[in-house]
Amino acid sequence: MREKQRKLLLGILFDCIGMLSFSVPFLGEFSDVVWAPLSGFLMTRMYKGSLGRFSGLISFVEEFFPFSDFIPTFTLTWIYNYLIKKNV
């Protein structure tokens, strides 16, 4: 599988993991304390350079703050990187 497709599938998976906290109201928000730094780290590993650092920070903040988990940060980063910037 090419890197582009692998990153898309992983991004969708990671976004789904981030949205799992919605399945258990209030209790699920506490799981974000663990997932927020992990999602930021994973983002910086998937996308190198300034894009990875900026997206990692956004991912961390989005997961850390309650009720903002609905934003698919990994998928949006993939769209930006491969469709808007057109990196191959």
Task: Please outline what is shown here.
The protein is mainly α. The protein has helices at residues 3-19, 27-46, 49-64, 73-84.
- Rg calc: 13 Å
Mean pLDDT figure: 88
Percent of residues in beta strands: under 5%
Distance between the termini: 14 Å
Helix content: over 70%
Q: Detail the poorly predicted runs.
A: none
Strand count, sense and barrel status of the largest sheet are: none
Question: Structural class of the helix and strand makeup?
Answer: mainly alpha
Number of strands: 0
Order of helices and strands: HHHH
Specify the overall morphology: elongated
Helical stretch count? 4
Structure report:
The mean pLDDT is 88. The longest helix has 20 residues, at 27-46. The chain has four helices and no strands. The chain is an all-alpha fold and 88 residues long.
Properties at a glance:
single chain, 88 residues, mainly alpha, 4 helices, 74% helix, 0% strand
What does the secondary structure layout of this molecule look like, with pairings?
Blueprint: H1 3-19, H2 27-46, H3 49-64, H4 73-84
Helix pairs in contact: 1-2, 1-4, 2-3, 3-4
